[in-house]
Amino acid sequence: MVKRPAIDKALYPYRSNWLDIDGLKYHYLDEGSKNATALVMVHGNPTWSFYYRHLINAFAGDFRVVVPDHIGCGLSDKPARYPYTIESHIENLERLITHLNLKKIIWVMHDWGGAIAMGCAGRNPASAAGFVVFNTAAFMLDQVPWSIRICRSNLFGRFLVRGLNAFAGLAVYLGTSQRARFTRQVKKGYLAPYQSWGNRIAIHRFVQEIPLEEDHPTRKTIAEIESGLTQFQNHPMQILWGADDFCFTKKGVLPEWQTRFPEAEVHVLQQAGHYVVEDAHERIIPLMSDFMSKSA
To answer: Across the strands, what pairs with 16?
Structure first.
């Protein structure tokens, strides 16, 4: 069993579940009614299931809320030798969906979780009942901030991300417009699974998965995900966007979603950054409730 890092139980009181994936422990939460429509919440980098705790608390009464930690993240195993590709994360999520026999899913996604969730949904379209999209992408992006670009290198990037914990450590400051919400205990919750060089391997590999180079192998995966988006143009979609995000920007990325999904319900949330759920969960929950009452 994976050793659970010290996390405030008042913030993260959930029962852990693990799926064995080729000898690795893949951690996930499974809260609420097993007979209800599933909300599958997919996190990005450098977060984990802790990011969705407010939504879990709000919706577990009416839905089955499933929240995995990608291999290398959260409470899942963090092997030194592992592909850590977006393709591998999609395949793992597919195995979880099959394992839990989920037939009707509202996909909830953030950051890299957008590509992973839409990749999985694209391969299992019959189960998709709707989508809730937080600052993310499921298509190629050319605009990547310099602060993220410098973290991609094998040497200096590895030193920053794995040695200094600069990526996860700075994200709890740069990713929010509501710093008062990131109390000592909340910061500790976000960072608890990533307290050593070895435990930060996936954070660095996620950054390296950004396909900036023309011959980057992940370009093929992203192209396949993007081509699969068209099958969901008539599905219910709600887009909840943190206006202050420096990475997935309101002007540069949000319009890409609106172009592909012109019928989507869009809410731009002011005074909310990349960690939009942390910054604006009180505004998000009633909007999601209304949307899902029409989609579930």
So the answer is: 29
> How does residue 268 score in pLDDT terms, banded at 50, 70 and 90?
very high
Which residue carries 């919706």 as its tokens? 59
CATH architecture of structural domain 16-295? 3-Layer(aba) Sandwich (3.40)
Amino acid symbol at 33: S
> In angstroms, rounded to a whole number, what is the distance separating the alpha carbons of residues 194 and 206?
14
HSE at residue 96, side-chain half, CA atoms within 13 A, is 31
Q: Give the angle subtended at the CA of 38 by the CAs of 2 and 82, to the nearest 5°.
A: 35
Cβ contacts of residue 186 below 8 Å, gap of 6+?
Answer: 11, 172, 278
Average pLDDT, the chain: 95
- Both tokens of residue 168? 């996860």
**Closest CA relative to residue 113, chosen from 136, 97, 131, 96:** 136
In total, the chain counts a number of residues equal to 296
Distance CA 32, CA 20 (A): 22
Evaluate whether 48 touches 27 at the Cβ level (below 8 Å).
no
The CA distance from 162 to 5, in Å, is 18
Token pair for 139 = 């298509």
Rounded Cα distance, 118 and 228, in Å? 8
Instruction: Quickly count: other Cβ atoms within 10 Å of residue 256's Cβ.
Output: 16
| Domain range list for the chain | 16-295
Task: With beta carbons less than 8 A apart as the criterion, state whether 121 and 105 touch.
Answer: yes
With cut-offs at 50, 70 and 90, classify the pLDDT of residue 153: confident
